[in-house]
């Protein structure tokens, strides 16, 4: 156990902080319980999938500024399709769409050799425009089963369905990749691209695959967003900066090559619970936004400084 804790010290620390914040929340509001946990889990659902996608591209040594726009495209597509056809075919189309958008992002970065931050910034506007073409204003309707899949508890109170959806989504997509040659290639590319290339890693294809996985997670985030609201929202939500902050807070190095997905997901819940605590303390919503923004900027700046210091060594 001690060896495990030393190896995963940062994630263990985040888990401990999460428990402390839950206790603080309980002290502030004694009635906080299973329903409160379920509410936090539902609110964290789209943030968790956006963070998972961002974590994969950061591990490969890149960044994707278009995650929120891809989620918007998938959300409005799901709302339009589910209004006109059966839910399962619509679900598969949306997941394929997210995968395709990620592939396009990755292919553009690899083929043009333009920095990923520039390409994905441009694609942010492209995907945002595509979302507005599909739905000019909020509308459509999601399938009832999709909404029921994330609401309430599973088996017993205290185990939110939304938390189970996050765990299953990441386990189905990331765990098989993490243990294959592709997963090793993603970490090798992020750690040292030149060394990875000399070791026989197909760096270009690895990067494209990583961005495709990001797109798939964004599709899941868009579906969860549509399930939460019951409609499609073409305007991207506040998921970009939040996902970057959660990735860094979760222990993923911005330079790439180090980290996993568990830490960032725990970080998502930490950030959501901090917001809940501020709300329970009746802090002005505008002040809450300022505090959240300050935390996110501070986390990203500290993560960047740590990456630069590590690079100099």
Strand percentage: under 5%
Order of helices and strands: HHHHHHHHHHHHHH
Helix content: over 70%
Q: What is the distance, rounded to the nearest whole angstrom, between the alpha carbons of the first and last residues?
A: 31 Å
Query: What is the C-alpha radius of gyration, as a whole number of Å?
Result: 19 Å
The residue ranges in which pLDDT falls below 50 over 5 or more consecutive positions are: none
Quaternary structure? single chain
Counting DSSP E segments of at least 2 residues, the number of strands comes to 0
Report on the biggest sheet. none
Please report the number of helical segments: 14
Globally, the shape reads globular
Describe the protein.
It is a single chain. With 313 residues, the protein is mostly helical. It has a domain at 33-237 and 252-258. The protein contains 14 helices and no strands. The chain has helices spanning 2-7, 9-28, 34-59, 67-82, 87-112, 116-134, 144-148, 161-178, 181-191, 193-198, 203-229, 240-249, 262-280, 285-312. The chain is globular, with a radius of gyration of 19 Å. 45% of the residues are buried. The mean pLDDT is 88.
């Amino acid at each position: 156990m001690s060896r495990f804790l030393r190896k995963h010290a940062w994630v263990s620390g985040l888990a401990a902080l999460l428990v402390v914040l839950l206790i603080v929340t309980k002290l502030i509001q004694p009635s906080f319980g299973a329903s409160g946990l379920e509410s936090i889990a539902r609110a964290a659902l789209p943030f968790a999938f956006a963070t998972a996608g961002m974590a994969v591209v950061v591990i490969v040594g890149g960044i994707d500024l278009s995650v929120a726009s891809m989620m918007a495209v998938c959300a409005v597509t799901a709302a339009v399709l589910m209004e006109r056809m059966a839910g399962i075919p619509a679900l598969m189309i949306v997941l394929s769409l997210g995968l395709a958008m990620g592939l396009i992002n990755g292919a553009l970065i690899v083929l043009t050799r333009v920095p990923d931050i520039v390409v994905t910034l441009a694609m942010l506007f492209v995907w945002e425009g595509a979302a507005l073409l599909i739905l000019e204003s909020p509308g459509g309707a999601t399938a009832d089963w999709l909404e029921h899949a994330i609401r309430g508890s599973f088996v017993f109170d205290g185990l939110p369905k939304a938390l189970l959806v996050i765990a299953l989504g990441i386990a189905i997509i990331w765990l098989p990749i993490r243990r294959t040659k592709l997963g090793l290639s993603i970490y090798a590319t992020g750690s040292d691209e030149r060394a990875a290339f000399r070791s026989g890693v197909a760096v270009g294809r690895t990067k494209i695959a990583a961005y495709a996985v990001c797109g798939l997670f964004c599709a899941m985030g868009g579906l969860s967003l549509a399930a939460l609201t019951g409609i499609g929202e073409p305007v991207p939500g506040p998921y970009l900066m939040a996902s970057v902050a959660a990735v860094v807070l979760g222990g993923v190095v911005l330079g790439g090559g180090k980290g996993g997905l568990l830490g960032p997901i725990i970080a998502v819940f930490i950030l959501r619970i901090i917001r809940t605590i501020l709300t329970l303390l009746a802090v002005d919503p505008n002040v809450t936004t300022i505090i959240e923004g300050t935390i996110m900027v501070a986390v990203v700046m500290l993560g960047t400084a740590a990456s630069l210091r590590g690079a100099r060594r």
